Amino acid sequence: MTLKLYCFGESGNAYKAALTLELSGLAWEAVYVDFFGGEARSDAFKSNVNAMGEVPALVDTDHDYTITQSGAIQDYVVHLSQKLTGSTPEERREVLRWVLWDNHKLSSVAGPTRFLMNFLPEDKRPKEVIAFHQGRLKAAYAVLNDHLADKNWIVGNAITVADISCCGYLFYPEPFGFDRADWPHIDAWLTRIEQTPGWKHPYDLMPGSPADRA
Amino acid sequence: MTLKLYCFGESGNAYKAALTLELSGLAWEAVYVDFFGGEARSDAFKSNVNAMGEVPALVDTDHDYTITQSGAIQDYVVHLSQKLTGSTPEERREVLRWVLWDNHKLSSVAGPTRFLMNFLPEDKRPKEVIAFHQGRLKAAYAVLNDHLADKNWIVGNAITVADISCCGYLFYPEPFGFDRADWPHIDAWLTRIEQTPGWKHPYDLMPGSPADRA
Questions:
Q1: Least CB-packed of A49, A149, B6, B212 within 10 Å?
Q2: What are the pLDDT digits (tens) for B49-106?
Q3: Tens of pLDDT along B133-189?
Q4: 3-class SS of residue A187
Q5: Keywords, A to Z (chains A, B) (predicted)?
Q6: What is the distance in angstroms between the Cα of B42 and the nearest Cα belonging to chain A?
């Protein structure tokens, strides 16, 4: 089986797919996409990989199958590996619930906020937008922190793609208004993820980082 | 079976769950949540219905089961009814992909934008945030419009929960920067949804509307 993940280090959404692949035990390889050079929005990329013009995209060359959206890639990796999901139908729906929550409330806000605060020139950073997003994020961190107050993992007794989805942006060093010290239950859970055998930091797991462009 | 959906008319996320229930043919009833009066954020609601303090929430009283997040509710309704999903595993993953895309790119931006533009006092509407969100939404409408250029439905040959998710905010009359006339393929697809037997407008399907508070 040949699984190729189109990704770049700075993308927390790509990290969710990459970490899911890595922890699943399946063999996979990263294909670097020069996002900051415009590659994801090129006609070639849109025609051949993802019409939405985004990473991550997973290509299973053996099955001539391409799938995009981090949560759908996670679903395919779970399908192939039978790992990293709940152990009952109810647990699997609970995993889906948190993946959806992450997509709706956490990553979809954290990603743009981190982009605006770090990857735009300083004089082009929209202060009102950043402040608004940080307010929404604070509410999301509170929901996640409360949920983890009496749990090791988001669903059930082991790491699932729900954990991997929700942590997508939380290991990055660039500031976007998240400080682990403010959220003790999130902090302890991130430490548990870091201690999971096979875990890697996004900049170690995928090609490309701000250091390469410095 | 008794399915109770906690909802209110103005919520496009609740509409996704309500329309899925209605088109599934299952019996269900709406339980009005006074969102604008703060009910969803009350301790009672958080303790008894949804710790996240949001609608929609679906309670299946026969199975003592509660599920939240519109996409997870849709998954449960599909599980119960075996309707409104793809006909193969690949189609079902494609449905999931578009539900995730909607949660990440469309509804999660359209909802707050509509709120800021219509349900806040005029002097408290953050112009820069609204403009930023409308820019993101325009990119999302373009993706959806292009996808629908040669298709009747988002996935396969019939309406699925992917269609119901993506249309969640698009029937509302309050302005948020979406005009059907600008996006002909979206417009034709919305007409197909409206013509689906059983379809109802959000303010006809769920209790509560701006008219009630006028």
A1: A149
A2: 999 999 999 999 999 999 999 999 999 999 999 999 999 999 999 999 999 999 999 9
A3: 999 999 999 999 999 999 999 999 999 999 999 999 999 999 999 999 999 999 999
A4: helix
A5: Oxidoreductase, Peroxidase
A6: 14
For the cut 80, the answer to whether the pLDDT of residue B213 exceeds it is no
Chain A CB within 8 Å of residue B107 CB? yes
Task: Please tell me if the domain spanning B3-83+200-213 has the same topology as the one spanning B89-194.
Answer: no
- Chain B residues with CB under 8 Å of A112 CB are 136
How far apart CA B103 and CA A78 sit, in angstroms, is 21
- Residue contact B97–A146, C-beta within 8 A: no
- Tell me the residue type at A145: N
**What span, in angstroms and rounded, lies between the C-alpha atoms of A129 and A133?**
6
User: What residue has token string 């969640």?
Assistant: B168
Closest CA to A23 of A198, A204, A206: A198
A80 has a chain B CB within 8 A of its CB = no
User: Domain extents for chain B?
Assistant: 3-83+200-213, 89-194
Tell me how far CA of residue A190 lies from CA of A196, B39, B47, B112, B191, in angstroms.
10, 32, 26, 29, 46
Cα atoms in the 13 Å half-sphere on the side-chain side of B194: 11
Q: B11 — contact with chain A (CB < 8 Å)?
A: no
What is the average per-residue pLDDT within A198-214? 93
Q: Which of A51, A104, A147 comes nearest B103 by C-beta?
A: A104
Reduced to 3 states (helix: H, G, I; strand: E, B; else coil), residue B37 is: helix
B51 touches chain A (CB under 8 A): yes
What CATH architecture applies to the domain A3-83+200-213? 3-Layer(aba) Sandwich (3.40)
What 3 state SS string does B102-164 have? Answer: HHHHHHHHHHHHHHHHHCCCHHHCCHHHHHHHHHHHHHHHHHHHHHHHHCCCCCCCCCCHHHH
